[in-house]
Amino acid sequence: MINVSKYFSLKNLSFESDQHCILWVKKANGTIHIGNKEFLLEDNDLITIGKGQSFRATDEPLMEGYAVFFDDSDFPNSSVDSVCRIVIMYNQFRIHNKISVPEKLAVEFDHLFILMYKESKTNSEQKVNPILSLLLQTLILKMEQFVKKDLLDDFGEDDVDEAKVLSDFLKLLETNFSK
What we know:
Layout: E1 3-7, E2 20-34, E3 37-41, E4 45-49, E5 55-57, E6 62-70, H1 80-96, E7 98-100, H2 103-122, H3 130-153, H4 160-176
Antiparallel strand pairs: 1-6, 2-3, 2-4, 2-5, 2-6, 4-7
Helix pairs in contact: 1-3, 2-3
């Protein structure tokens, strides 16, 4: 079941080891440990914690945001395409764990998390909330879009061929994943 909560301290967050977690760090000053990695938290960070990964936060004088907890069963009515894309991207997020969102895009992510939070409070009696499931898919696809663009932007002028190869590979992967 998808659970969305607002937090003012990461120390109070806990979740099951068979869940995934996406944190929207709206305001921050502190660090978080995910597995054996340490991350300095800044405003407008997306933090991903994969199933089975442990996390703990150090003392943080300023912390505010949203946490989305979900497991693999939260996408029962999704198409195979969207589930595969989510799995591929979430595995990448699990490796990187932190995505710094520029201020101009932060508003979009903020609105999406607010919508998810409100929806989670309106239909809490449902085992699977289809609207919340679609919003979660939208969030992950939005993250995917940002990461892909960021990866391609990291290539310099001398790396145009590598950027094209990466872009072509990602397109082929999306269209031919089931083959």
